[in-house]
Amino acid sequence: MSKQQNEEVVENQPQEVVESTENERSEAAATEPSTTEAQVEADDGLEVLRKRIQELEAENSELKDQYLRKSADFDNFRKRMFREKEESVKYANTNLLSDIINIIDDFERAIKSSQESKDFDMFHSGIELIEKQFTGMLERNWGLKRFESEGEPFDPQKHEAINMEEREGLQDQTVLEDYQKGYMLHDRVLRHSKVKVGVPKAAPSGNSDDNDQNQNKE
Q1: Which of 96, 98, 94, 123 shows the shortest CA–CA distance to 110?
Q2: Higher pLDDT among residues 5 and 90, named by residue
Q3: Contact residues for 152 (Cβ-Cβ < 8 A; gap 6+)
Q4: What digits encode the pLDDT tens for the residues 84-95?
Q5: Within 13 Å of residue 38, how many CA atoms lie on the same side as its CB?
Q6: Which residues contact 155 (CB under 8 A, 6 or more apart)?
Q7: How remote is the C-alpha of 37 from its chain's centroid?
Q8: Max CA distance (Å), the chain
Q9: Of 183, 158, 188, 185, nearest in space to 173 by CA
Q10: Span 18-32, mean pLDDT?
Q11: Cβ atoms of residues 215 and 204 within 8 Å
């Protein structure tokens, strides 16, 4: 169909059809730039996402590195604390042993003196003095105190009864003899004293008195 014939066809078409065709062409022409802009915007969005992903990967790598350093620091700290704890336990009695060393020196001097003089009384006096110094040092420096029990009321919190004996004149259970001394560490019993306990003697029963009287009558 020639150009002239097309123009004739268009001229012969109704006015509404011609206008509709022109509108479709205009819309198609207007849609092409919009499609291009949308594609550009999509590309820009992808670029932003790529940059954000790179930033997150870098941040994740940095956080991982910080975590590894913190983990290594904590592991070193734990090992150091464990080592210091071991040393603390190992040398916890340093001060006590330093005090005991001085007492050992006193014993060595007493033994040496007794070997030279052969004086038993002097040796005995020296041992007594050392014993007083030793117990005094333990009480003064470490809160270890020896307590006396003989003549005291029996107290199961402090005393361990090894033997018991009925005794006249007693109102309550009383410690008669101290077999082994007890010790207090500050306000706590470190070792119970081993004692002999006196208990009030039981009064004779009425039946025994009646039997004795009957026997006397016979």
Answers
A1: 123
A2: 90
A3: 174, 175
A4: 999 998 998 999
A5: 5
A6: none
A7: 68
A8: 177
A9: 158
A10: 54
A11: no
How much is the mean pLDDT over the chain?
82
DSSP 14-44: -HHHHHHHHHHHHHHHHHHHHHHHHHHHHHH
CB 175 within 8 A of CB 141: no
What's the rounded Cα separation, in Å, for the pair 141 and 59?
Answer: 59
d(CA 84, CA 59): 37
| pLDDT tens-digit map of 69-85 | 999 999 999 999 999 99
Tokens at 181, concatenated: 């001394």
Please report which helix (H) or strand (E) contains residue 122, including its range: helix 120-142
Q: In the chain, helix, strand, coil percent, each to 5?
A: 65, 15, 15
Write out pLDDT tens, residues 138-190: 999 999 999 999 999 999 999 999 999 999 888 999 999 999 999 999 999 99
- The amino acid that residue 15 corresponds to is Q
